[in-house]
Every structure is written in structure tokens, then in C-alpha cells.
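ENTRY TYPE: paired fold submission
RECORD: A
CONTENT: sequence, then C-alpha cells
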Amino acid sequence: MVAEQIVARGIRQPTVLEALRAVPRHLFVPEDARNAAYADHPLPIGHGQTISQPYIVALMTELLELSGGEKVLEIGTGSGYQAAVLAHLGAAVYSIEIVAPLAQQARRDLERAGYAGVHLRTGDGYRGWLEEAPFDRVILTAAPREIPEPLIDQLAVGGILVAPVGEGVQDLVVVRKTEHGLERRTVEAVRFVPMTGEAERRPGAPR
């Protein structure tokens, strides 16, 4: 998986490659899909959600520029695999999942894989995790139409946010928060499941 899907497509950070080799991806997919756990595509994990393609996990992780010890907020725990990769890299991970059964399964799978230290919450990631803010890094594994303002607010100065943004085919964007404002760049086109819990926040919609 690492050699053919990740290194071959340009991921070079040694710590990221080591984490992708070490974290047992098959433990984070349903049993009936484990024969495809290391294949080059996303897999369904139930409740309309997916575990991301290995290359995309590696790319987003590399874009976070982790050196170890960062406090990371993840929006969309899903299977727990991305959280495990972040934890393996030495991050203190705070992950929010809106779908309660997925959050419960991710907790079990993270513990089984040896990543019981990941902090999990069931709830609406749109609001972030205010009492644990600020975060050095924020990563979204589901696509909002626009980056939720609370997540920008909870990002520390000097911090990095990585997210798919838009509807349909989305832009994978990197936002760096500086003392002078936000620096934003687009990396490539991606396709993620939509971020749930914020659909009602269209202009004029009741809250």
C-alpha cells in the first residue's frame, strides 16, 4: 500500500510513511471489507460514511506538518483510522463524530489497535471543541460548504487547518493562521462525504 499508492504518488515525509506502515488499517473497516482494506479507494463503513482512500489520508496528514506533540482537532472520526495515524505521529488527538454508532465503534477499534489515548466526543463538529481550544492543527474528514467559523476561531495562531471544502467535487484546502490573518491555498480536487450537522445552517434557515 505505502510503496504503490503513497510513495508512488509523491508523499515523502518519513514519519507519515512510517505511520501508514504501522497503523493496522484492516482493524478500522467492517469485517466483510477487510480483504480490500489496503486497496487504493475509500470503503463504506456504514451510516452513509466511508474510510478515506489511503493516499488521501497520507496527503492530508503530510499537509498538517506534524512534528509530534501537537494538539489536533479532527472533525469526523468515522472509522477512527485517521485519528490512529495522527496519534501514532505523537499528536494529542481530539476527535468529534456526529453519528453515535460510528463514534462507539471507532472507540472500540482505537482501543483494540492500541490508541486508547484518543479523545472522542459524539456531537456536531461544526461547533468544534471549545473547552479544549486552541488547537495547533484542525483536520476535517467530511466536506462543509465553507469552513465553519468556530473551527477557524479555535485554531491557534501559527496553526494549520486542512479540509475538503465545497459541494460535489471539493477543493482540498490548507489554511494557515498567522498574526496578520489567514493564508489559504488549494491543493487538489477531492471527493468526500458532506459534513452533516451543518446543512440547516444555510442563510435564513432556522437554528
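RECORD: B
CONTENT: sequence, then C-alpha cells
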Amino acid sequence: MPEIKFTLTAQSRINEVDFDNIPFGKICTDHMFTADFIDGQWTNFQISPVAPLVLHPTNLALHYGQSIFEGMKASLSQDGTPLLMRPELHARRFNASAHRMCMPEFPEEEFVRAIRTLVSTDRAWIPPQRGSSLYIRPFMFATDEYIGVKPSKTYKFVIITLPAGPYYDRPVRLRTETTYVRAVDGGVGEAKCAGNYAAAMYPSALARQKGYDQVLWLDAHEFKYIQEVGTMNIFFVIGDTVVTPSTTGSILKGITRASIIEILRDKGVEVQERQISIDEVIESYRKGTLREVFGTGTAALVANVDCIRHGDIEIELSSEKWSISLMAKEEINGLRDGSIVDTRGWIVPIKEAVMA
């Protein structure tokens, strides 16, 4: 097991942070983890102060997009122990993204060890407020220095952590997109690669200009079947049944999605993973059987949707009918702060000593 070299900051910046008002994604903790892929192996494991990365102008990631990432969270138990939720699944998905983008895998055991060590080092940065957390961003990018369309031979793996409050502080408004597409089967929709998110920015900006928060993406062939939202997988409660699009090649295999499905099924709720069309959603709304819509994701956790716009049709959802989503949110929040006993083996406490 490679040794992790430590170079700790001389002066923490933690006293500069107002943990009651944390802008998402803008404040890093004191340290980051880095490793290099050189000559076919991962080396140079270290935790050091957060600092700029030096890149050559011909860096392959800048030109040809070999860049992937993950998103996960650490929370605090009621006794102050840092907790991770299903970190091994994030390691697995990270490597699935690496495989699709022709990049080297990072060993799962080392992935989890690096996160545990970094979170332990900066554990004081985990916000204690319920619903807040330490956002963890592992990422990898090509580092070869030449202009040429072929996979890099060298890579850098980095983990940064950022304190974060709730991602959405109100229900979400969605608008379907019938001109632009996010992903197609056989493409890279299942991978958390940087280009997926860049491609979504323009249509997402158009949606915001019209007063909506996110795009509800439809399939690339007929603009008929629902895929996902820019920041979350999507669920529909129709009658007493929860329906979510199946992950069949162009939809991200969300880990929060998988967890929510298991939680709901354990509580006796029928969950169907299948194709669902926007027409079916509209029809169920007109019949009065569409009770609630919610999204799930690492950042969003469980976010209610109160409006969906499709062409000239606007679906408005009343919070008075929300029950399944609120129950799911309460359960997953309870697991994350230890107030609900983990019977599934999802929660990984971090007992490592704080580095000095």
C-alpha cells in the first residue's frame, strides 16, 4: 500500500468561513490529495495545502477532454464522527467513467483510503448543520504535453473538499428540451466526464432565461422519453407507484438514486425502473394521479419539483401531496447524521486520527 506523504498548512483558513452561509462550490478546505500516473502505475501519493495546478498549454485534457470526476459527501454523526455513505460505489463509478474515457483506473481501495485520510485531516471543516456536509470532489485528467488525438500516457488524480449547505433551498422548476440533447445510447452519458456538463450549459442557460432552474432532458431520437435532470436523476410518483427512468446507456447511474430506490422498496413502496414518456407524465397530471416529482443526486440529495414546462403545457405540483419524497429525504438525512440506524452497511465512519 503506497505511503501518503503529508505537507500540512501552517495556517488554516477555517476561521474565515461562515458555516451558516456557505456558497456551494466556492470554498475549499485547507488540503487536497494528489497522485500521478507515470509509467503505468499510480505514484506520488500526497496530502498538501490546496494550491493551483500548473499545466502546460499543450495539456491533452484541455484540448481533447480526457477529464472525469466524482461527487460525494461527508457528514457528521451526532457524536461528531465523520461519516461517508457508500464510498465504494463512488470508486466503482469513477473507474467506470475512466474506462469509458480510455483512462487508467484508480484502485478502489486506494480511492476510499485517500478520501478517508483527507476527510480526517480536514474534519473540522464539516458543517454541523443538518442538511449541510463536506462535498468531496475526486477528479482525474490527462497530463501529457503534446497536440495529438490519442489517449494520454500520464494522468493526475486529485481530491478536493468543500463545505456545502443545502444545494436547493426551494422546490425546483424544470423545462423540457426539444432541440438540444444531453446524451445518446453508446455515447458518454453514463460517464461523469467534463464534456457532458459543458454540452448542457447552453440549453440550461436558455431554461434559466425563461425562469426555470434546470432542463428535464428527453431522449435524443424522439424527444419523447424522459432521461434525467442536469444535476439529478428524476422520479415520478403516479398513484402509489414511483417510476424512474431505467439507466440503459445514456443516463448516469446515480448512487443516491440507487439508495433511494432501495429505501423506498424496503418501506413497501413499489418502484418501477422503466421508460417513461413526457406524454405519460402529462396524462397522469391531467387525470390527477401525478402526486409528486422529485430528483436525487449527491449535491441535491432529494429535491422536490413543483413545476415542469413542456411546450405550452405547464405541470404544477402542490406540496400538500408530497409524502414519499419527504419520507425518502428524512431517511437518507437520518442515515447521514446517524439518527437512523444503518442496517444496510452503507455508512462508513472515519475513525482515523487527525493528522498533526
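NOTES ON RECORD B: The radius of gyration is 21 Å. The chain is about 25% helix and 30% strand.
STATUS: closed
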